[in-house]
Amino acid sequence: MKREELVKYLDGLLEPGKFRDYCPNGLQVEGRDDVVRIVAGVTASQALLDAAVASQADAVLVHHGYFWKGEDGRVVGMRKQRLGTLLQHEMSLIAYHLPLDAHPVLGNNAQLAKMFNWQPEGHFGEQDIAWFGRVGESSLLGDLALQIEKTLQRVPLVIGDAARPVKRIAWCSGGAQGYFEQAIAQGADLYVSGEISEQTVHLARESGVAYIAAGHHATERYGVKALAEHLAEQFGVACEFIDVANPV
How far is residue 130's CA from residue 242's CA, in Å, rounded to a whole number? Predict the structure, then answer.
């Protein structure tokens, strides 16, 4: 398919114009006109770009791309290397940040709900990025933590009594610890996110609401993976998800 056709479809699907984001969404680096093979991943790191080159990809599709607000805009060092790899091999870089967190079917939060059988009831937080609802069945915190560990293949950081019953849950992938107070206001027994801050530990202890930090990378693998699978089904293009390991 044509690059312009692909980007137009993704923009229509994910609707980036609805979001105030910290980076440009959509096509970030222009590559060749025809897209036959796509490599998808969480972050456009050099390791992912090298894997895309080895796979002879025409485009790289990610959740975390480039040109973040507040970054040094000079094309030197690591930035030169990354952009040079894309330009030398005529690979397009396509990135969707908040739109991919928020999508009701393919987004990171939707995919977490699907994986763990959480029942969504609504949204909260800045631009309604975060979700709240109920666990499939009333469970103990320790059991939910073990389920998350087995599914994400990463030991989560758990703040709270393992024997605490959990019925109402709130969640948001990635670095969304800032929504914890709003999760508490939603009546959550547990908040699940990718990261946790020092002050968040005290808030969990003093509020009595449990917190699971399951990993920024670990909680954001599934949106871009689902999006790649959707494109393969929709257009018949070859889409390969490559998971570059990240302990955070």
Answer: 26
Candidates 214, 1, 20; CA nearest to 102 is 20
How far out from the chain centre does Cα 199 lie? 23
Residue with tokens 């939910």: 144
Closest-CA residue to 132 (of 192, 208, 197, 199): 192
Token pair recorded at residue 102: 């928020």
Task: Tell me 237's DSSP state.
Answer: -
- Look at residues 3, 61, 67, 63 and name the one whose alpha carbon lies nearest to residue 31: 3
pTM: 0.96
**CB of 178 closer than 8 Å to CB of 193:** no
φ, ψ at 33 (rounded to 5°): -70, -40
Structure tokens at 11: 């923009």
CA 193 from chain centre, in angstroms, equals 11
- CA separation for the pair 43, 49 (Å, rounded): 9
Q: Residue 174 pLDDT > 90, yes or no?
A: yes
pLDDT band at residue 136 using 50, 70 and 90 as cut-offs: confident
